[in-house]
Amino acid sequence: MTTGFFGDMSPATFKGAEAGPFDFAHYNPDEQIMGKPMKDHLRFALAYWHSLAWEGGDPFGGPTFDRPWFPHGTMERAKLKADVAFELFDLLGQPYFCWHDADIRPEGDSFAQSLRNFEEIIDYFEEKLEHRNLGLLWGTANMFSHRRWMSGASTNPDPDVFAYSAATVKTCMDATHRLNGENYVLWGGREGYETLLNTDMSRELDHMGRFLNMVVEYKHKIGFKGTILVEPKPQEPSKHQYDYDAATCYGFLQKYGLEKEVKLNLEQGHAILAGHSFEHEIATAAALGVLGSIDMNRNDYQSGWDTDQFPNSVPEVALAYYHILKAGGLGTGGTNFDAKLRRQSLDPQDLVAAHVGAMDVCARGLKAAVALIEDGGLDDALTARYAGWDTPAAQAMLNSDFDAIFADVVAQDAGPKPKSGRQEILENLVNKFV
Ligand code: XUL
Ligand code: CO
What we know:
The protein is α/β, with parallel strands linked by helices and 434 residues long. The protein contains 16 helices and 12 strands.
């Protein structure tokens, strides 16, 4: 018995050139790529919040979507939402999904009631997962929507909110562990400030550092084997968020002794808001050894707002996967579609087509990245560009000092000979594959 929400739609399958709007033209889950199935490189996940919980509102208008489980608020409707969620997962066949506590359960009028609601839905998920080839990529706590979090969660000036946050994250980590989640995410939408006039930044950073250490301590206490991830974002909803970008997060992790315990969940739209490209954030995290997982979406380049659109630019996605593959892949991470429909896309079919298209774009991007790696042109150019450093003299210089280097430069006298960076040649090379 299905809910009937998706009518007579059947599961999306790979049809290549024959694909219609609800079939895969490029995502062929079992196709072998660099020694493993495509699905194991991409590790797709659906985001419960945007696809099932979001009602289509924007800052100027209310809900546009007409779903039988709206308005949220009862367990009956939360279960209907779960039924439809799993029907969507069955149509798409992706291996993972992700949730916040608030996406899946109605808020109760006490902490204990909210927890009972949450645990009942986790039980319901557990039953549904038993019969499926589906797992939890990550769980997380929504500590930004309810008014109690308006001044932050772990960074709140009120210690009672710190306590409520700790208790909340404990319950979400317990549930993630129970469902064999592969990661646990913390995104601090309110961990930042609206104005420095009322903010003690050094105290807030210390509280956030202690909180994250408590997360790691609890992970080890319960034997959770997944990866703890923080998700950088520069602003929105807060005017300034402490997890600004990958480099800022790394500095924070190092200061609080967490750089070996915590990795990053990077999102395309957040990279754009921080003034970076997505591949910049991926390459930065990879260089610092903290690449964890990705939230794949696309930000509008004009709006300056977090538009969370479904990805549809193959060249951008290809460069993201190029850097992921060069870094050795996503490990316990995956490709989570933290993306929402446009608010005019009202139909259940729009939801399916959005994900099918996004999975296809990622599959094309991955294949282009693999072709770039197999071609080897970019690697050769990189090796050639840094070849000077392979000589014993150059390596010895790194272990010498300014006086010795000065003496050598004076003795040789000729000075360096500038070489072309060949940017256009390399851009043309990339364009052969995307
Ligand atoms: C918000 C965002 C969140 C996190 C999880 O911009 O990306 O949905 O991914 O809290
Ligand atoms: Co995200």
